[in-house]
Write a structure and sequence with these properties.
Layout lengths: L8 H5 L3 E12 L6 E7 L6 E6 L7 H4 L3 E5 L5 E3 L2 E3 L2 E2 L1 E3 L5 E3 L14
Antiparallel strand pairs: 1-2, 1-4, 2-3, 4-7, 5-6, 8-9
Length: about 120
């Protein structure tokens, strides 16, 4: 996979990337591709944001509860079918397109920023 074009530090600093704790999950069978709905708590100042993620190759809704995931919290909301996504969880994309979620290595306070 080729590298993307170079950006400057001010471009990167515009992203608000934080750790959120998964507090609720649901299967999203009506999505175009199988997905899971997630509600993540980003702590005081951001609160709970929801998203939909195509992560069913490696995850089921129940195994994600309590996990601390890395997400971008300052993208505009995006309508995904009948569901409004408010953040974007981050993950590594395998060669077949399956996603492995990025998470905190040790428990941290919800909402901590990523540098």
């Amino acid at each position: 996979m080729d590298r993307k074009p170079e950006i400057n530090w001010s471009d990167f600093s515009k992203l608000d990337i934080r750790v959120g704790t998964v507090e609720r999950t649901e299967a999203f069978p009506e999505a175009r591709r199988p997905a899971i709905k997630l509600w993540l708590d980003f702590g005081e100042g951001v609160g709970v944001l929801k998203t939909s993620a195509q992560i069913t190759a490696h995850y089921t809704p129940d195994v994600l509860l309590g996990r601390q995931l890395v997400a971008v919290v300052n993208f505009p909301p995006k309508q995904i079918g009948s569901f409004m996504s408010q953040c974007l969880v981050l993950g590594a994309i395998e060669s077949g397109g399956d996603v492995v979620l990025l998470s905190a290595d040790h428990p941290v306070a919800a909402g901590l920023p990523i540098a």
